[in-house]
UniProtKB/TrEMBL annotation:
<feature type="region of interest" description="Disordered">
    <location>
        <begin position="257"/>
        <end position="287"/>
    </location>
</feature>
<dbReference type="Pfam" id="PF06114">
    <property type="entry name" value="Peptidase_M78"/>
</dbReference>
<feature type="compositionally biased region" description="Basic and acidic residues">
    <location>
        <begin position="262"/>
        <end position="274"/>
    </location>
</feature>
<feature type="domain" description="IrrE N-terminal-like">
    <location>
        <begin position="44"/>
        <end position="149"/>
    </location>
</feature>
<protein>
    <submittedName>
        <fullName>ImmA/IrrE family metallo-endopeptidase</fullName>
    </submittedName>
</protein>
<dbReference type="InterPro" id="IPR052345">
    <property type="entry name" value="Rad_response_metalloprotease"/>
</dbReference>
<dbReference type="InterPro" id="IPR010359">
    <property type="entry name" value="IrrE_HExxH"/>
</dbReference>
Length: 287
């Protein structure tokens, strides 16, 4: 199951439950599959587990030692296993994107859609400034993690932007807006964080403040065009994860060559779920 299938199934599930309020009530999602949620102390690396009871209902147990946002995501993740009919795989750490199985990643996508429903999240993205400060505010409003919020922010943005998750200094995941994909911008998974960028310095422990302009070809593969690219970063020392937001001032970026657009879609596989118009609105430069 690919990411887009998982997200569409999540939207169908939300429609069955009914339009949620903010922040969404994750126990309501659990109830819809005949589940009840308990919060107990589990192993340090254990987020949650679920089991089907003899009466056909489900018991979902989440780790009460974790933050409330992590618990909320864990409930939605366990709901995803039931709805998507994907067996749980607890052989890898939940916080590591690099070592997650495809089934676990599909459940993560489903869970993110439940926590940040498209119909509620997209209008807020459209009206928000661009930058990690705005993403952090949205994460607070939806009571979701910065990683989930940042990924969906970039995917649904009208701007030319990307959200990059790196672990141990290597790029593991990149969410791009429709307009940035159309421009042919590609951040290669497995590549090292570009040296002497804001992200690189933040990972090395330097104090970083605000955003900086960066050369586009430092981040994007085979980039041969001009444009003012801006970078904002957060480094999570506990997991050695670097969160990078990249965006162009669209007024400075010429249209993408048709050949490069085809390369970006055909050779790189699955596009991120969008529903966005193919070109951004006015620029939102954040200094």
């Amino acid at each position: 199951m690919n990411d887009q299938d998982a997200a569409m199934k999540a939207r169908k599930f939300i429609a069955e439950v009914g339009t949620p309020a903010l922040p969404v009530l994750v126990d309501t999602y659990a109830s819809h599959i005949g589940g009840s949620v308990s919060r107990e102390t589990l192993g340090e690396q254990e987020d949650a587990w679920s089991v089907r009871l003899p009466n056909g209902k489900y018991r979902i147990c989440v780790n009460c030692a974790h933050s409330s946002r992590r618990q909320r995501f864990s409930v939605c993740h366990e709901v995803a296993h039931v709805v998507l009919d994907i067996p749980a795989d607890h052989s890898t750490p939940s916080w590591s994107y690099a070592r997650r199985s495809p089934g676990e990643i599909a459940c993560d996508v489903f869970a993110a859609e439940l926590l940040l429903p498209y119909k509620l999240f997209k209008p807020r993205v459209d009206s928000a400034d661009i930058g990690l400060a705005a993403i952090s505010e949205l994460a607070d409003e939806f009571e979701a993690s910065l990683i989930s919020t940042g990924s969906r922010f970039a995917t649904f943005s009208r701007e030319l932007c990307a959200f990059v998750l790196s672990e141990e200094g290597k790029v593991r995941y990149c969410a791009r807006s429709t307009s940035l994909r159309s421009a042919g911008a590609w951040v290669k998974p497995g590549s090292l964080i570009p040296s002497d960028t804001l992200s690189d310095r933040a990972r090395r422990g330097d104090v970083t403040k605000g955003t900086e302009e960066v050369e586009p070809d430092q981040w994007f593969e085979d980039w041969e065009r001009d444009g003012s690219l801006y970078e904002d970063v957060r480094h999570l020392h506990q997991w050695d994860q670097t969160l990078t937001l990249l965006w162009f001032d669209d007024a400075d970026l010429p249209p993408a060559p048709a050949q490069r657009q085809r390369w970006g879609e055909e050779s790189q596989g699955l596009r991120e779920l969008d529903g966005i118009l193919p070109w951004p609105g006015k620029s939102k430069r954040k200094r």
